[in-house]
User: Fold 8-amino-7-ketopelargonate synthase from Lacipirellula limnantheis.
Amino acid sequence: MATTYSFRSGRSLTGGYMPPLDWISAELAELLQRDLLRELPAAFDLQTVMIEGAGQRLINFASNDYLGLAADPRLVAAATEACQTTGVGRGSSPLICGRSTIHAELERRLAEFEHTEAALLFPSGFAANAGVVPALADRGDAIFADAKNHASLIDGCRLSRAETHVYRHNDAAHLAELLAAHASAARRTLIVTDTLFSMDGDVAPLAEIAALARRYDAMLLLDEAHATGVFGDRGRGLAEAAGIEYDGLIRVGTLSKAFGAAGGFVVGPQALIDYLANRARSYVFSTAQPASTAAAALVALHVVADEPQRRTQLLAAAATLRKRLQAAGWRTGDSRSQIIPIAVGPAADAVALSQRLREAGFWVPAIRPPSVPPGESLLRLSLTASHTPEMVDGLLAALGTNHQDAQAQRKHEEF
Ligand SMILES: *Cc1c(COP(=O)(O)O)cnc(C)c1O
Assistant:
């Protein structure tokens, strides 16, 4: 049967594939009908606070390059030099011959930065989570996971074959209930959560979660992907900011966000790292991250240590932006960070608002299911150290006032 689907850009495809692939175009047509069909966006080449592609130049409010390091000349120079001395690809996984002296140095420096015994580099943060969770928990074990955890943690839980108990988002009381009901029957217990949630910009109740981990002798895996480099006195993340110290603590981070490079890492006790190098399949069976990328990350580590004003100014600017958005009638949820959601609701409305901003010169993507629950589509705005006050003013002017919500708010207050 012929199935037609078309993208916003006008590109369309008439299916009519023969079995066994006929179901694919039917699935796409259904996504289109539900306003959930995603087309690959224009290829953006220039990747700084400005992005450029398809003849358009846009101010970028979509990037996770929170400290503005991805195009920093110091990182670029380090990567270029490493590329010349070590080549582009590593040729194999770390255990065979892929681990360079630059990787070894980066692991040493990461452990120092994170104030842990050891660190292990992965090709990406996704690979780290997908490898670490199944290495820590198996059949007979119990995992307790926040409902809004990142997809890579969810996949890690699925791969683990452990019993996974999902607690309501940021609800430590629900976590306590689930632990009371299921922890004692399990061989090992693992609690898993993002520290800073990637869509809502809100923060896990880490002190309460760590107290529960202690009470149940559970391993605690914290994913600091969006928090590393941004939160904490030294930029280690939210566990540092919350003063969490616990023997069972294992932290995952990424070099692809605030560090402006690419690659994931795990930090913790030496024995844990030795074990993961044996048992995390995404470490053992994947080619090592390019040494040029590791060299850039090494420079980023120095910048994070030496230029704390990047993170303090960013968090102050984010707090101001949240207030100004709220004053204009926009709902920013429970955001406490540089990730600021603008709640919209229906997927089609979110796409339309994103399109309107794009026409005004701003790139703020609409986030739709399955990244968020149905009916909770939003614009995800991320602020970085590279945004100037003029850029932020321009965005607020383009957004204007959200009359609908402002009216609803006034009505609410009258009652
Ligand atoms: C981005 C992200 C990851 C994946 O990191 P990559 O290095 O981009 O693969 C993992 N966890 C969370 C919470 C993230 O936001």
Summary: The pocket of pyridoxal-5'-phosphate is lined by residues 124-126, 129, 150, 152, 194, 198, 223, 225-226, 254, 256, 264 (CB under 6 Å).
